[in-house]
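Field log, afternoon session.

UNIT: design team B
ACTIVITY: writing a sequence onto a fixed backbone
BACKBONE:
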């Protein structure tokens, strides 16, 4: 078991792809956050955004091995400048006190500034490092370089 855990929520697969690349770079364990409610299609997206705006957590179907990790990296899409309900539920369920917590987001345009502020309020001690990725694609060499640089920033934050 690695000292580093990457947990992620992904509706379309972009966040999953980034989480997998980062896990390879950091030799980290990776776990998907899954919820009861389906969020596929336009209606799933619409209800998800509404739930995010209302700060409504989801009901999770996944369990996670947060203990005895030293570093937890959370990956998520941006929904209405807020964390998706599944991320809010994860942060409410697991005690991250004493851990270094970092977060990355994927988005199509709005960026992660508001998302990271809201997520940081839910994490004891806040977020140690963040990364916002606009429209990441698996074959983009610039993405690989961004992730390599961020992986080094994360390693420095843990020292």
């Amino acid at each position: 078991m690695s000292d580093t855990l990457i947990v992620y929520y992904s509706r379309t697969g972009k966040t999953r792809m980034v989480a997998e690349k980062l896990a390879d770079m950091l030799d980290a364990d990776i776990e998907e956050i899954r919820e009861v409610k389906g969020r596929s299609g336009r209606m799933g997206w619409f209800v998800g955004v509404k739930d995010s705006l209302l700060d409504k957590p989801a009901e999770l179907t996944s369990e996670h091995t947060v203990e005895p990790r030293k570093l937890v990296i959370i990956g998520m899409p941006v929904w209405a400048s807020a964390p998706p309900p599944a991320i809010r539920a994860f942060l409410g369920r697991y005690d991250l006190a004493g851990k270094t917590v970092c977060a990355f987001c994927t988005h199509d345009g709005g960026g992660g500034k508001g998302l990271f502020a809201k997520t940081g309020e839910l994490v004891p001690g806040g977020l140690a490092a963040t990364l916002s990725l606009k429209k990441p694609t698996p074959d983009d060499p610039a993405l690989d370089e961004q992730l390599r640089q961020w992986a080094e920033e994360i390693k420095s934050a843990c020292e």
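LOG NOTE: The domain at 4-158 is CATH 3.40.50.360 (Rossmann fold).
NEXT ACTIVITY: expression trials, pending approval
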